[in-house]
Amino acid sequence: MSEPRTERSETSPADTGGGPVFSVRSLWKVFGAKASRIPGDSSLTGLSQAELREKTGCTAAVRDVSFDVHKGEVFVVMGLSGSGKSTLVRCLTRLIEPTSGEIILDGEDVVGMDKEQLREVRRHRAAMVFQNFGLLPHRSVIDNVAYGLEIQGMGKEERRAKAATMVEKVGLEGLGERRPGQLSGGQQQRVGLARALAVDPEVLLFDEPFSALDPLIRRDMQEEVIRLHREEGRTMVFITHDLSEALRLGDRIALMRDGQIVQLGTPEEIVANPADDYVRDFVRDVPREQVISVRRAMRPVDADAPEATTGTELAPDTLVSDAIETVARSGEHCRVVENGRTVGIVDYAALLTVVARLDENGDAGEGTEREVATV
C-alpha cells in the first residue's frame, strides 16, 4: 500500500472558517419509472437496494446524502463499484440530474439553475477530469488543452499561450505539438488535467481519473495532484475505489456503500475509529502507523513531571511511523508539544499500542503478531 501524505491535522477544513464551496443536502438520485416518488415516501426510503428494486423497479444510486466541501480541501469520495460515488460527483454539476435534494455552489442553487447558468458553471467554475481522457486525436496537446478556452471564446493566440503554460505546469514540456496517439497513458491523463486547469476553475472534480493507469504511472499522477494542490490550494473533489489513493490524497474521505455515506472524516479518524464492520473491513490492512498521529497515541503528562521537559519534541500531527523512528534513534520518550506546551508523552509502549491495534483492555487484534514483528 502506498504511503499517505504526511501533512495531516486533526482540524478539518470545517473548523477553519468561511462557507463551503459545495454544500449538499438530502441528495437523491433514483433511476427508474416514477423515481421522484421514492425520496418522499418513508415506506420506501428505508428499504435495502434489493427490496427497493423488487418493490418499485427503481435503483437508488444516491440515497439521502449530505456533506460540505470546503475551500482548499481535497474531498475524496470512495467506495466499491456500484456504491454511487461516480453518480454523486456527476450530480454536483448536473451532468446527471438529481431526483431531489439541494446542491449549493458558493451560495447559488445548482438544482435551480437554467441551461445557461449550468453552462457557465461547467465552463468556468467546476472542471471535470474523467477516467476516459476524452482527447481530440486530430489536435495537438496544446490545442487539446486550449479547447475549453476556445469554447469560452478566448482568442487563438491568448488561449494557446495559456495552454502552453499549463502543459509545462503538468510536466509535459516539449510535448505541446504532439498528438495524443504519440503519448503514453500517463501523459494523456496529464493533458486532461492541464485542460481542466486551463479554464482556472474554482473546483476540480476527478472521476476515478487514474484507474486505467499502470501502478507506477498512477503513483506519479497522484504525486502530481498533491503537488498542484500544494502549489495552488485549489478545491478538489476526488472519486476513487482505491483506499490507498484516498488516504494519500484526501483531507477528508466520504466512504460510500449502496448509495449512502457510511462514514465521513479525516483519514486518521476513519482508520482509528471505523464506524461499523464494513468500514473496519475496508481499513483492516492499512498500516496504521502511516495514518495515525501521535495526538492519538500519546499518554497524558503532568506539567510538573520531569518527563514533561525532556525528550525530543514532536508536533501533535506527527505520524506514529515518524515517531517510532525518533524514539528508536534517541532511545527515550518524546514529548508532544503544542503552542509551546507539552500536552503528552509517546514512548515504545504508546506507539506499540497503535501499531499492534491493541484494544482498550490491552488485547491484541487480528494480524498483531505480523505487525509487532515489524516494529
Descriptive report:
The chain has helices at residues 42-45, 49-56, 85-92, 115-125, 141-145, 147-152, 156-169, 185-198, 215-232, 243-249, 267-272, 277-283, 294-297, 320-330, 348-355, 368-372; strands spanning 20-31, 59-70, 74-78, 100-105, 108-109, 126-130, 203-207, 235-240, 252-257, 260-265, 312-314, 334-338, 341-346. The strands form 3 sheets. It has a 6-stranded mixed β-sheet, sandwiched between helices. α7 crosses α8, α8 (185-198) runs parallel beside α9 (215-232) and α14 (320-330) runs antiparallel to α15. The protein has 16 helices and 13 strands. β7 (203-207), α9 and β8 (235-240) form a beta-alpha-beta unit. The two termini are 17 Å apart. It is globular, with a radius of gyration of 23 Å. It folds into 2 domains: 13-20 and 69-101 and 109-286, P-loop containing nucleotide triphosphate hydrolases (Rossmann fold, 3-Layer(aba) Sandwich), CATH 3.40.50; 289-372, Alpha-Beta Complex (CBS domain Like), CATH 3.90.1280. The model is unreliable at 4-16 and 359-375 (pLDDT under 50). By secondary structure, it is of the alpha/beta class.
